From TrEMBL:
The chain crosses the membrane at residues 198-219, 231-253, 292-312, 333-352, 358-383, 390-406, 426-445, 452-472. InterPro entries: ComEC_N (IPR004477), Competence_DNA_uptake (IPR052159), DUF4131 (IPR025405). Keywords: Cell membrane, Membrane, Transmembrane, Transmembrane helix. The keyword Transmembrane applies. Pfam families: Competence, DUF4131. This is Competence protein ComEC. It is a multi-pass membrane protein. Residues 7-134 form the DUF4131 domain. The keyword Cell membrane applies. It is found in: Cell membrane.
Length: 533
């Protein structure tokens, strides 16, 4: 009988995904068939400023034809040239001359598909604006929930900018508290990736947990009052939900917020807390509201990291026992980092083809420092908003110091040899098999399930056989491919992988190095790059 509820959940998920897919296709087809001269949009998010343009998320409200207007409700990303010097408020409505276009697809089997990435976030269109003459302004809705949230986010950003003069400190705090990373230098952003601490830059479970701890400390005494448990639950739940919305509701924040709400509700009802059940409830509600979230890299890594912590942290902690509080804390940090990295390893290799060698060393310092920076940043916002400028300035100096230490810590591993092991390649089947092996090892070794031994051995054997056959096939298979949307030719001759670029590759050309690394990891050989001028 257990199969019935499981089948029901899968059927419900499939139905939600099917309905969303049909609606998405309908909007796409409607816009493709329309012969329109301009389109009307409403800005829905704060700007993300880049080197040459500024990016806004928007809702496409209508397609403006010669004789009629086609109402449409679809999402888009609009790029405005920085030469226009625009600062559009959330809620601003405007008509843009021209047509929406589909995002670029992957230029090769190893390339990053911006189209699929946006489509999984429900965004089928992008638009470009280079001239003010192509814009017509309308009155915006200044009092919608989106404008209120954007106003709060904008005021928080202004307070951070006023009390954090150092650009790197401001960029780090803005990313950690508001979930916006556009002010972080590319070199520093890469340093976080190479050190295995990039999770600190995204508002994630760590940030929500620290924020929840601060709220629990402030509002905990409410539980001692008559009806205090209900007041405690409602107050903290409301603040957590508002904070999650302000950060843009990334998958990791949705998961952490739902887990906190579930835990508090269980405590209020005097129910025992089961971490895996709480994680499952969070995943269920996120996927029910947005089935496409399953394909989001952030969603996958977030849930696998928490699954690893719930499964492996206690067994790893048992390897070393001590009564010393400092040593115990260091042990717990090591155990948490290893547990999270272990379960996310298959996806890290599949998506990024590299592994940060010194992730344990970096996380040992960065996680604690982030735990100090987050409440300090919240304190700065409260003091700055209530007019205590002197105290806010002192807190700002403390935050700048902590941010400086964090940034130097993540940059240090890049000076060490072999700080990143790259050119590691797994295809989807290999990643799935490796994940099955890890779960099987846990079931056989930790949970002591005898049947899991045979299952794990079979999965490990399947992984080895499939990998060996794939490697032999790839090395013997002649490789000649035109990739990167026709701008690059890649071919292999013996042990040399030749990469011929039609035009010079810019330093920050997004997928260039990742794409090249994946080809090297899969097909082997040494790379020789040739640029045609």
């Amino acid at each position: 009988m257990r199969i019935i509820p499981v089948a029901g959940i899968f059927l419900l998920g499939w139905s939600a995904g099917f309905v969303q897919s049909v609606e998405f296709t309908r909007r796409l087809t409607e816009a493709d068939r329309a012969d329109y001269l301009a389109y009307q949009v409403r800005i829905t998010d704060l700007p993300e400023r880049r080197e040459k343009n500024t990016r806004y998320k928007a809702t496409v409200e209508a397609l403006l034809c010669r004789d009629t207007t086609i109402r449409i409700n679809s999402r888009a990303i609009i790029y405005f040239s920085n030469d226009l010097q625009l600062n559009l408020p959330v809620g601003q409505r405007l008509a843009i001359k021209g047509k929406l276009v589909r995002p670029p697809d992957a230029g090769s089997e190893m390339g990053f598909s911006y189209r699929k990435y946006l489509e999984r976030n429900g965004i089928p269109w992008i638009g470009f604006v280079k001239k003010k003459e192509h814009l017509v302004w309308f009155d915006g809705n200044r009092f919608s929930p989106g404008t209120i949230i954007a106003s709060l986010t904008g005021k928080a950003e202004q307070l951070f900018r006023a009390h954090l003069p150092d650009a790197d400190a401001f960029g780090l705090v803005k990313a950690m508290i508001l979930g916006r990373r556009e002010d972080i230098r590319p070199e520093l952003n890469q340093a976080f990736t190479d050190s295995g601490t990039v999770h600190v830059l995204s508002v994630s479970g760590l940030h929500v947990a620290v924020f929840f701890s601060v709220l629990h400390f402030i509002f905990g005494p409410l539980r001692n009052l008559p009806r205090g448990r209900q007041l405690y639950l409602v107050t903290i739940s409301a603040i957590l939900i508002v904070y999650a919305v302000i950060t843009g509701l990334p998958a990791s924040v949705q998961r952490a917020t739902l887990m906190c709400l579930t835990w508090m509700t269980g405590q209020n009802l005097s129910r025992k807390h089961q971490p895996l059940n709480t994680l499952g409830i969070a995943a269920f509600f996120i996927l029910l509201s947005d089935p496409a979230a399953f394909y989001d890299v952030g969603f996958q890594l977030s849930f696998l990291a928490m699954l690893g912590i719930f499964l492996w942290m206690k067994p790893i902690q048992s390897w070393y026992t001590t009564e010393n509080r400092i040593l115990k804390h260091i042990r717990d940090l090591f155990a948490m980092s290893i547990a999270a990295q272990l379960m996310t390893l298959p996806l890290i290799l599949y998506y990024f083809s590299q592994f940060p060698t010194y992730f344990l060393l970096a996380n040992l310092f960065v996680v604690d420092l982030a735990g100090m920076l987050i409440p300090a940043a919240i304190g700065l916002l409260v003091l700055g908003a209530t007019g205590f400028e002197t105290l806010a300035g002192w807190i700002g100096q403390l935050i700048s110091l902590i941010a400086w230490v964090i940034n130097r810590t993540v940059e240090f591993p890049r000076e060490l040899p072999y700080h990143v092991i790259d050119h590691l390649y797994l295809d989807p089947i290999q990643a799935l098999l490796l994940l099955v092996v890890l779960l099987g090892v846990y079931s056989a070794w930790i949970a002591r399930l005898k049947k899991a031994i045979v299952f794990t051995a079979a999965a490990a054997l399947g992984f080895c056989i499939y990998s060996a056959v794939s490697v032999l096939n790839d090395y013997r298979h002649p490789l000649v491919q035109v990739v990167s949307n026709g701008n690059r030719l890649i071919f292999k001759s013996r042990s040399i992988l030749y990469i011929i670029d039609k035009q010079p590759v810019e330093k920050n050309a997004g997928i260039s190095e990742i794409e090249t690394g994946k080809y090297l990891a899969r097909y082997g050989g040494n790379a020789v790059r040739i640029e045609l001028q």
